[in-house]
User: What shape does this take?
Amino acid sequence: MSKIAIVTGSSRGIGKATVIRLAEDGCEIVVNYKNSEKQAMQVIETIKAKGRSAIAVKADVSQWTQAKNLIDRTVETFGRLDILVNNAGIYERANLDKLTPEDWDKRIATNLSSMFYCTKAALPFLKKVGWGRIINISSQIGFKGTNHGTEYATSKAGIIGFTRAVAQELCKFNVTVNAIAPGAVDTDILAGDSLERKKERAREIPMGRLGKPEDVATVVSFLTSQEADWITGATIHVNGGSIMY
Assistant: This one.
């Protein structure tokens, strides 16, 4: 039986690469987006061309009611839920003295609270199936920090604690919970960088290149597989050697 997978924030970047890879693995897919409907529908067409079923659900997962609706729509459509990839996030550079309380609340809600909302809404269905995979996308910045994104570093570090705690709770239901901490991946987050800055970033990485969204999607694929059945509460660093733990 095909697995049913939701990837939040999957109209572009790492999320897009992930839904395409999971479709190639044989999953039926729910593409989640907040604003990028055209891009989401293009992803749907790519997935259908691979012979898999897919729907697109608009939801701002930083809001509880919308996150719950995303999960409910999935189960209404496919009858079950097996895989949840909490990927949605925002990164807007700001020094602490320029960061407003409203900025803080918005970014913590999008990057961290969304994982709680989606996981909580998905939990009854994962328990019912008696098998599940939850993968949370963190960042190397959650480990090493940054000088222009306190709220981003805080949210991404919080994901690690969330992952470890929820992993312990869900073991008895045969649901694994893991995190991935990407390094500098060439997505929209780096769109403001000049070509020279991107080359400079690549030179700072021991393996000599920026990451690709597919580098992260490959690890998601592994963590959702039966081969990863005894891995839970872990964080896998995908960063070309930028930091090593």
Summary: The CA atoms of residues 29 and 54 lie 5 Å apart. The chain has a mean pLDDT of 94. The helical segments are 13-24, 37-49, 64-78, 101-129, 141-144, 150-170, 195-204, 213-223. Strands lie at 4-7, 28-33, 54-58, 83-86, 132-137, 175-182, 235-238.
